[in-house]
Design brief:
Layout lengths: L4 H6 L1 E8 L2 E9 L6 E3 L1 E2 L2 E4 L6 H7 L7 H10 L7 E4 L1 H4 L9 H21 L5 H5 L1 H15 L8 H4 L2 H16 L2 E3 L1
Helix pairs in contact: 5-7
């Protein structure tokens, strides 16, 4: 397993996002000054890279959202930026099926993707993404996954959630599309 001491120390992480027919890299992490989770952004766009080649020099030149600038610079210097800390399989949102909720592994992938997109939406005050998270079907989906696959002892029946199946599928696909349309290459 890779050694991510600098990522853990500075709470900045090189992550991979796998979309349909496209894999990109970006940075996600916690700003140690304001405690907020942030991604690399420019306005309402998520800054992504297609390759890890010269990533150190690219990240050093990019304007970034972190208030803890010294931690960000130290992370870039100390971390092996060719090792991916986490992979987010965004494709599951684009082809979401209710059966994904039956297996813990796929349910948690969906939850991680939703939470990552929500971090982004909050950070940039995204006018198209934020309303999706206020929809009761999305709230119920997240609650169901947390209750059944994340926290111990959860055993909620999916019958109530099943009534919102079509709405949940539509919301997941919309999340994927709007988030994908919000990426910007450097």
């Amino acid at each position: 397993m890779e050694d991510f001491n600098a990522s853990e120390k500075y709470r900045k992480y090189l992550i991979e996002l796998d979309f349909n027919h496209l894999t990109v890299l970006t940075v996600w992490g916690t700003d140690m000054v304001d405690g907020e989770d942030k991604l690399l952004v420019n306005g309402e766009k998520l800054i992504v890279l297609k390759t890890a080649v010269d990533i150190k020099s690219v990240l050093q030149k990019l304007e970034n959202p972190y208030l803890d600038q010294e931690n960000y610079r130290q992370w870039i210097e100390e971390e092996n930026l060719h090792d991916i800390y986490n992979v987010n399989d965004m494709k599951l949102l684009s082809k979401f099926e209710f059966s994904f909720l039956e297996e813990k592994s796929t349910a948690l992938i969906v939850l991680n993707d939703i939470n990552l997109i929500q971090d982004f939406a909050i950070q940039v005050d995204h006018s198209k993404l934020l309303p999706i998270f206020d929809q009761s079907a999305m709230v119920n989906l997240k609650d169901f996954i947390y209750d059944n696959h994340f926290w111990k002892g959860g055993d909620k029946n999916s019958v109530a959630l099943k009534k919102e199946e079509m709405e949940i599928i539509a919301l997941c696909k919309r999340l994927y599309t709007v988030f994908f349309d919000s990426i910007s290459f450097v």
